[in-house]
Specification:
Blueprint (H helix, E strand, L loop, with lengths): L1 E4 L5 H9 L4 E5 L12 H9 L6 E6 L4 H11 L3 E4 L8 H10 L4 E8 L3 H9 L5 E6 L16 H10 L4 E3 L8 H8 L3 E4 L13 H11 L3
Helix pairs in contact: 1-2, 5-6
């Protein structure tokens, strides 16, 4: 089972996660301060530079303008660009355009999971993405994700059955529930942000990260 962890704000946290066996090291990055865990491009580059070669460098953006997304890719050179903006602002045909503009960078498309309509949404985006990440759809949040809440796993399981690219399950996952989530959904990978933080901070908790990785892999 592959594991992705967000949101790393320091090289030390990122190196710790990689040493714990995390495959995808997520960094929220941008120059506009839209997210509380966001770091600027220079910090993101320093975080990525601290990683071993086998770790996948993932840059999350909530931007919706193609120029801004391309700027992010050029500035931080991630292995994967995670598109986590509001889904209505970046429809599938524009992701297809982005695919042509950044052919060497993999695309991870966030899909908000609310009702059964999320299945059709995932199918719409799948032809243009390398990964789909399923996260909880809640109002009042910027973009898709970082809610700390779970969603209806039966809908995510249906997406896994019907979409033919790797699916990452996110949304309220923690060491105590990730094994149940994997059994219910059968994703390719799992993701954690809120519940692997040190409480009251945006820093990662080494004990929780290690526990999450072990629980995800049946340890």
């Amino acid at each position: 089972m592959k594991v992705q962890i967000y949101a790393h704000k320091t090289p030390e946290d990122a190196a710790m996660s990689a040493a714990a066996g995390v495959n995808f090291i997520g960094v929220s990055t941008g120059q506009r301060g839209r997210l509380s865990a966001e770091v600027d491009f220079a910090t993101c580059r320093a975080i990525f530079a601290a990683l071993p070669p086998e770790a996948m460098k993932v840059a999350l953006t909530v931007g919706w303008e193609l120029a801004e997304i391309i700027e992010t890719v050029q500035a931080v050179q991630p292995d994967v660009i995670h598109l986590s903006g509001d889904i209505a602002d970046l429809p599938a045909p524009r992701v297809a355009e982005l695919r042509q503009a950044i052919p060497l960078t993999k695309i991870m498309q966030a899909i908000p999971v609310g009702g059964i309509e999320s299945v059709a949404l995932a199918l719409d985006y799948a032809p243009y993405a390398d990964y789909i990440i399923l996260d909880t759809d809640l109002s009042g949040y910027t973009g898709v994700g970082a809610t700390g809440a779970t969603h209806d796993w039966s809908i995510s399981a249906e997406i896994v059955r019907r979409v033919n690219i790797p699916i990452i399950l996110a949304g309220g996952l923690k060491p105590e529930n990730v094994a149940d989530a994997i059994r219910a959904v059968r994703p390719w990978a799992v993701d954690s942000y809120t519940h692997t933080n040190i409480p009251g901070t945006k820093r990662k908790d080494p004990v929780k990260v290690k526990a999450f990785v072990e629980a995800a892999r049946g340890g």
